Amino acid sequence: MKTNLAVLTLGLATGSAQAAGLSVSVEIPRLSVAEYHRPYVAMWIEDSGRRAASNLNVWYDVEMRNDEGEKWLADLRGWWRKAGRSMDMPIDGVSGPTKAPGVHQVDFRSGAKPLGTLKPGSYTLKVEAAREVGGREMLSIPFQWPPKDSETKSAKGKSELGTVRLNLKN
Amino acid sequence: MTLKIRALALAALPLALLATSADAHRRWLLPSATVLSGDTELVTVDAASSNQLFVFEHRPLPADNVTVTGPDGQPVATKIIGSGDYRSAFDVPLTQQGTYRIALVNDGLMGTYMLDGERKRWRGTRAEMANAVPAGGTEARFIQTNGRIETFVTLGAPNETALQPTGQGLELVPVTHPNDIVVGEPARFQFLSDGQPAANLKVEFVEGGTRYRDAAGSQELTTDAEGMVELTAERPGYYYIEAGMEGTPPADDAIAGSRSSYTGVLEFLPL
User: Fold this and answer.
1) Which residue of A has its CA nearest to B268?
2) Which pLDDT score is estimated for B251?
3) What is the number of structural domains in chain A?
4) SS3 B152
5) Whole-number Å distance between alpha carbons of B127 and B183
6) CA angle A68, A71, A77 (to 5 degrees)
7) Is A124 domain-assigned?
8) pLDDT tens across B40-57, in order?
9) Is residue A121 part of a domain?
């Protein structure tokens, strides 16, 4: 009976470890402009040395012929400098199509691509948006990993991004 | 008539390459972008000399003398668009990932002499020097010149292969990669003269857009003992750097001196 309990406890702990991760929700604002194109959006994690620790998602014109949509990836200046320029796009599980105005949530599991395994420490989630004939905006949400409890942090954009939420799960 | 004017303008081209106090125009290669993404891309470059940055208001630079070194160190063919009265233009296809060095290097002799009471200028090679001064010319003086005008562009991740110094004339050696510079972060470069650190070299550093401000906005910097200089920009944009120095005269009695110059265009991007 005691043995069974131990197994059960172990099972619970393992279950908790598997669920660890984070989710990011990005609000793309609806803009009333004469010429609207969906923004390119990148989200990544930087470590305390401001180096890219995880390249989470990039939403761009993946469907264009001959990878022509990659021409504008450099407009995501922050992401391009920290992560994009040294990667060969597209990347499975990272590249995705541009999104319509609204809230979009993406979940990332610790230990699995593209989040991977973060060493304990201080990190910053970066979310950047750049829009053709529009502007560019980058938001930062600092966080500690691993989180003590599940917690949600947010940042609010002024132009190209609405509210960005980071939900941490331990 | 138009043809004649064009011919005159072309004849004047090499003079625009010289850094002399008599011709203080800035000489520049301005690329359409410096940091690019995609499998292949293209930059188009304007080549001109002017006072205002970066305004076409004086002379074109000769696009056919431009050399482009690709990310693998091999030359890249440019596509020349043409030359107008105020600027030349050419395209550079970028088919490899990495850094490209775009340069206009002038290496030769410059001479002056008096003829019929007028000061004349001449440019050419050592072999051509014997015929440089026509009959009746006096006060001939020749100096060796080396001028480098350049800029850099990068497709994808930057690399260093194209940036290796040639050991000739004044050169800029990056400590900070020239396509990885942003506002607020100091960019460090080393100047070399014939491959050796150019210490105590005066370097002019000017933000573009001179037409839209009253101040000249020119910073005068000096390299340290190692030839190092640090550039910091508060605003993003294209910037111009220039340096010039007297060199060691060659062991040639017919040549009175040596002068080398460097001008470059760097883009500081927003963070």
Assistant:
1) A77
2) 82
3) 1
4) strand
5) 47
6) 150
7) yes
8) 999 999 999 999 999 999
9) yes
